[in-house]
Amino acid sequence: MKEKKSTIARITLGLFSLLNTSRKIIINLVFFTLLLIFIIAITRDEKNITVEPGSALILNIRGDIVEQKHDIDPMDAFISEALEQPNTAAEVLLTDILSVIKQATTDDRISMMVLDLENMQGSGITKLSDIAKALTEFKSQGKKIIAIGEQYSQDQYYLASYADDIWLNPKGWMLLDGYGRYQLYFKSALEKLSISQHIFRVGTYKSAVEPYIRDSMSAAAKEANQLWLTDLWQQYKIDVAQQRNFAVSNFDENIDVLVTKLKAANGNIAEYALANNWVDALKTREQMKQDLINVVGSNGDKGYKNIAFDDYLTLINSYSSMESISTNKVAVIVAKGTILTGNQKPGTIGGTSTAALLRQARDNDNVKAVVLRVDSPGGSAYASEIIRQEVELLKASGKPVVASMGTYAASGGYWISAPADKIYASPTTITGSIGIFGFFMTFEKTLSKLGIYTDGVGTTDIAGFGITRELTPGMANIIQLNIERGYRDFVELVANNRNMTTAQVDAIAQGRVWSGSKALELGLVDALGDLDNAIEAAAQLANLEDYDRLLIEKEKSPRALFLQSLLGQASIFFGPPADSHYSENKLTSLINTLSLELKQLAQLNDPQGIYSFCLACEVE
Q1: 28 and 72 in one domain?
Q2: Which residue from 8, 194, 200, 619 could staple onto 446, CB 3.0 to 4.6 Å apart?
Q3: Residue of 207, 353, 376, 411 marked catalytic
Q4: 206 is annotated as an active-site residue
C-alpha cells in the first residue's frame, strides 16, 4: 500500500513539475517576445522613411477597403499572428487611400504611381468610384499611372482601367463576370431538422427571410435584384469602357462569344486580354521591374525608386498631426455595418453607441453641422429608431445634418438617413429596401424527437412563450400586428421627411432595393455625390465659409492605444500575414459562407425581434 501511495505521489509530483516548468517556459516566451517587440518599437525611427525625388508611389492596397475598421484587440491580433492562426481579414480605410492619393498629387517628389492591386480584396464599386476620382485628379497633374499584376479580379481591374498602361503577366488571368446575387437557402434543411420557423413581414419585395422559407429565390426578388444589379453593372461598364476607349459592347457577357475569342487566343487568358484591349502589354515580373527602373530610376537595391502605400501614409499622417486652426467644425460620424442594439464596437452600428456619437456632436459647440456617413444594409428596427431620434435632436439644436450614403444604405440604413436635411448617394449605392420583418425559430418538434417536451401552467395566455414551445395563433397575431405597425411607421417616416405622401412611398417601398441613380429619380435621395460633396453641402447649410472636418468616433482606451502602438510592430518581426484571397479553395469558401450566414442571423438582437435588414444587398 505504501509503495502504491509512493508511486501516486511521484506521478502527481512529476505532473506538477511538468506543469510548472511549462508555465515558466510560456511566461518567458511571452515576456521575451514582448521585450523584443518593445525594443523594435522604440528603436524604429519612422523619420528614416524618405521619398527620393522622382519616386513612384506604389498603391499596394492590402485587404478589404472599408469606411471604418472593425475594432480588434491588439493583443488578440498579435497572438493570432504570432501563432499563425487565421485572423480577421485585413482592412484599409477608404479615407486613408484618398488621403495618400491626394497628397501624392501635389508632391513634387512623386513622379508617377504604380497600381499593385494583387492583395486588394473586397470593396464595391461605390468605394472604387471614389478612388477612381482621386486617380483622375492625380493624372490631371501630368503624372502617369501604370498598373501591374499577375491577375486582376473585377474590382482590381476597375481601378487598373484608370491607369495609363495596364501590364499583365503572360500567364496571368482576368475575366469580368459581372454582378450577381446568389445565396444559400435552408427551407428543406430546417424541415429535416424539424425546426419551426416563424416569419412575419411586410413588403412584396422584402426577401431577407426567403432563405428560411424557400429553397429558391422568388420571382419578385429576382425582378427587384436584377434591376439594381443591372444598374451597377452598367455603371461599371460605362466607366471602364470610357477609360479604355472602347465600346460598352466589348464586354463579353455571352459565353459563346467569350469561348470563340479564347479559342482564337489558343486558350491563353492573357493573350485574350491583350487582343481584346483589356491590357496594354504582357510582361513577366522581371520585365515589369526593369521597365519601371527605366522610367523612374534604380533605388540602388536592384529595384526601382518607390515608396509604398503604408510608408507614405505614415509620412502624411505625421504632417497632418498639427491642431486645426478653425474652430468651426463639420463633424463626420461613420455608421458602418449591421445595426444592433446596445453598445457596439467600431465596424458595427450600435443603437446606443452610435447615438452617443451623435449626441457628442450635438454637445460640442464647435460643431456647426454633421455628416452621417452610412454604409449599412440595416438591422435592428429599434436601434435604427434610437439613432433616428438623435438625428432629429441634432436638427432641433440648429445643426444641419447631411446623410452621405456609401456602398449600402438600405433598410435600417435608410431609416437613419431619412431624417437628414439632405441625402447624398453614389449612382451605385444600394439603398431603399423600405420594409420590416420579424423572424425566429422554435424547436419543439426537434426536441420531441429526442423525447424532450415543455409543459406547465401560467396566469395568462402568453405566459411561458419561448423557443421550446409551439407558437400560438394569438401570439402570431400580436407579432404580425407589431410588424405591420413598424412598416407604417417606416413609410410615414419617409413620407414626412421626403415631402411625399404615404401612398407614394408605399409604391416604391415594399422592401424593394434600388440603385442610387434610381433612388434619385424616385425622390429617395437629393443628389448624387461622394463624402466631399456631402461635407460641402453641410457647410453651406450651416453658412460656413471657413471650417475643418472633425471625425467623431469611439475613443480607444489608454490600454488599447498603448498595445496598438507597441504590438503594431509585430509584423516587423513575424512578417506580413500570408495572402489568402486566391488560395482559398471552393469548399472552404462554401463553409465560410454558411458560417457567415448563421453568424449574421445569430447576432441580430432587436428586443422585439423586428428588423429592417437587406440580406440581398451584397453582390458577388
Answers
A1: no
A2: 194
A3: 411
A4: yes
